[in-house]
Every structure is written in structure tokens, then in C-alpha cells.
Amino acid sequence: MTTVPPSIELDAAIRSPEVRNDPYSFYDSLRGDARVHRSTFGSLVIHRHADVSAALRESRLSSSNEHNDNYKQFSAMARQLGFGPLIDMQERTMLFLDPPDHTRLRRLAGKAFTVRAVEAMRPYISHLVDDMLDEAARRGHFDLIADVAYPLPVTVISQMMGVPLEDRHQLREWTAIAVRVLDPSDDMAALVPAGQAVAHLRQYFDDLVARRRTDLGDDLLSGLISAEEEGERLTHGELLATCVLLYAAGFETTVNLIGNGMLALLENRAAYERLGREPQLAASATEEALRYDSPVQLTGRTATGDTEVGGLPVERGQEVVILLGAANRDPDAFDDPGRFDISRNPNRHLAFSSGIHSCLGAGLARVEAQVAFTTIAHRFAQLELEGEPVRRETITLRGLEKLPVAVWS
Fold this sequence. Notes:
The chain has 20 helices and 13 strands. It has helices at about 10-15, 15-20, 25-30, 50-55, 70-80, 85-90, 100-110, 115-120, 120-140, 145-150, 150-160, 170-180, 190-210, 220-230, 235-250, 250-265, 270-275, 280-290, 325, 360-380, and strands at about 5-10, 35-40, 45, 60, 140-145, 300-305, 305-310, 310-315, 320-325, 385, 390, 400, 405. It has a single domain, classed as CATH 1.10.630.10. Strands 1-2-3-9-6-4 form a six-stranded mixed β-sheet. A three-stranded antiparallel β-sheet has the order 5-13-10. It has a two-stranded antiparallel sheet with strand order 7-8. The chain is globular. The chain is an alpha+beta fold. The mean pLDDT is about 90. β11 and β12 form a beta hairpin. About 55% of the residues lie in helices and about 10% in strands.
């Protein structure tokens, strides 16, 4: 006999201020109920590490929305209301594509994110962090988000893509609005600002591509333009969607990683002081920051054929909500998961997803966070929180709006 999973008001719960501020208590409450839950919209909800890991690698669970009937209804309505460009952009990005298109686009973009290419950027990243901390030290009081966590990855991805320095602030503002489209919502009104922001980003990169065609360089954007000009490897629509995705993903996740990680370090003083003494813990401290307070909390898949998740059958067309943040606090996968341990080993977290859709820029994000964490901890032994951190209102992407700190001599 098939067990019927208990129903939960998932959408209402994760949109509540209480769960947004502390999703981990909510995840703990799920563990006591069942292995799999069903949302009131009919989606299966999984939270166990083993199930999440398996689902992320299951070929019959697709990232493409073309298999999702609820999404089809939503997109049709969105198009009628004038959000066609937003839907088109989303459907062309590799984040929501399956092979072979996903494989083709990822291979083209991935050349800039190889281990060798990323490690070659470490001295540049270190230089940027030192300059930012020099300025912060002169003031004594600063915001770790505005003064380090945001400008560092924004500057790096802009440099990689050949985005002019004077345009970065505007692009950052548009991106912060655009990523709200990733949050679960049935509110069409919420699409208005996100749709406008995506349109601005698309037009910006359309103009930049047109200018760059006459002056190709060795940056990522020039490489994508060259791929487009070689024929069917990349259409113009795919080129623009890839530019928007790479730019947004190139800093949004990293901002949250650095912010969440620094808050965890400062709230766990012994860990912060230890990292300052033992910079060789940079890699494991970064992995623990990813696990402990994951910058991406959830993702989704749709079944392309009959399969199973968590021992329960999943029918073709059914949506599966994957709680990455819950999986990373699963006591069956991690000893004492609520403890922040910068030397945790092994640490098989799923913060960057897994399988074919694992984060393309994970290596770059790791290097940026490693440099930021160790440099701050080494230079500012007396760094302390000053006031209350302010959380972002986004759900899928978990991060901080403000992290005020003070440096005492």
C-alpha cells in the first residue's frame, strides 16, 4: 500500500517572516512528520539529504518548465499580461534547460570557469579584497555587505564579462529585482518589477553585444559572441539569456555566501579567531558556510516520466520541490548539523546543487569566499557586529541586506 504524504502549507510557510529569518526550525519540524510531504498545490516536497541528492541526479526529473502543467498555465497567463519577454528569457537560460541544449550552452560558457582559469584569478581577487578592507579600516565602521560582499563578486564577474565599471551599480540594482522571479509565487503583480528588470538587463546586454562585435577581446562576452557567429552553437536569444544568467549568478550567490558566512563566523567567535590563526582552514570554512546557511535554499524539478522520490511514486508532470537548505542540516548526513564547524570533514553539502545542474561558477564563488573570509579574519582580529543584521526578503536566495560591523584597534 502506498503511503500518502502529509500535506503542508509550504508556500505560505516559506513566505512568512518567521521562516524567512529562521528556515532551519521549520525544516526540523518537517523531519518529525514524514520523509516526503505534499504541498497544497500538489507538489512533492523533499528535505532529506539522501532523497535530495538522488533527485538532483535523477534524469527523469527535469529542470525544464515545459513538462510542468502548472507552469504552462502560469506562463500563458503571463504572456497575455505582457510578460512574454520575461518568459522567453527564462525558457532560454540553461538554468531551465535539459540536454542537449543545456549541455551545449554549459560547455560554451564553462570555458571561463575551469579550475585553472579560476585559480589564475586568485591574486586579482586578493588585491580587490585588500583594497576594500583598507578603506573599511580607515572608517572603522562599515557594512560588510555593501563594502565587501557585494562589490567583490560584482567587480570580478564584470571584469570577466567586459562590463564597463561605470555600469556595474545599475546592473546590480536590476539584478536584485530580477532574481525575485525565482521565488515561489502565484501573484502576477509580483512579476511587474522583475519583468521590467529582466527587460532592462536584456536590452543592456543586447547593446553591449552590438558594441563588442566591432572590438572583440579575450573576455567571456567576446567568447560567447564568437560562438554565436560560428553558427548554430548559440542563437542570439540564447546569447542574451546566457549573459543575463552568468552576470546575475556570477555575484548573487556569492554575495549571500560571503554575508551568511561572515555572520556565522562572527556569531561563533571561536571559529572566527581560529580562522584568523589558521588560514589553511579557508577551504573547509567556506564549505561549512555553504552548508550551515545555504545561499540557495530550494529548487524544483518536474517528472518527465513515472519515477519515485523518497520511496513514493512520482507521476509524469508532477513537480518536486527540493529543499537544499534542509538537506544541508539533515542529522542523518551530518553530525550535530546545527553546529558551525569550520574544520568539518567530510562535508557533502548540496549548496551548489548536484548532477548536471551543479553551479557552473561554484569554483569562482569558493575562491572569492575563501579569500574574503581569511583576509578579514586575519586583518581584523577585533571585528565585531554592530547592530542587527538585516535579511533580504527573497526566499529562494537567502542572504543579508546589511551586516554592520566595527573594527576596534
